[in-house]
Give the backbone structure.
Amino acid sequence: MNPKYKWITLASVVANPILLYLAYKFSHPTLKPQQSEQSEVLFFPDEGLQCPRLNTHRGCLDKKCRFKHTPQSLARLEGILKSATTSCDVCMFVIASQQLIDILVELHQRGVKVRCIADNQDMDGVLHALRSNGIVVRFDKSDYLMHHKYVVIDSKWVLTGSYNFSRGGMGINRENIVKVNHPHIVEAYLDEFNEMWQLYSTSNFSINFRKEMVYQGSG
């Protein structure tokens, strides 16, 4: 083969993949670098309460300590929720665990944007514990159940499964939570949350001292 044509052929082999990449990139302007996908699964109930000193520098030195010295799911869930830095969107059929409500209040006080959606059948504790601390809570006002159970953290992570923010979910029932950061999954859950957030924006419920539901009109 003529050396001239050999160099032309070699240049074409090298250039073609580059040209194909540039063509693909410019035809997909929103294309972003692939995020490292991670997942984690938590199962409930726990064997017991995790020792609060388990993950400290020195660990637990009390030989008579009655707490568990192996990682427990509830402690892990609390750690995941507390890791939120910008936003925490909670969509739960039941929000009744004071322990987890306290974490949401703590996030709100740290400046994290906390939004909560719940079913209107479990409004009593939610309204008083969250709204009284400045957290916006919206409810499904239909005759059907808002049966979702998920949390979106920082628009990057989704926690979903059978687990409710309830006392039964914490220590009695067999439950599960899956934590994922797959961009398409996170986006789908966030879109669903935002759609419901707008849908329920006109519902403004409160509960009087006789624990009766009172509709106050649109707001």
User: Anything to note?
Assistant: The chain has a mean pLDDT of 78. The chain is about 35% helix and 20% strand. Helices lie at 3-27, 73-82, 98-109, 124-130, 167-171, 183-199. The longest strand covers residues 113-119.
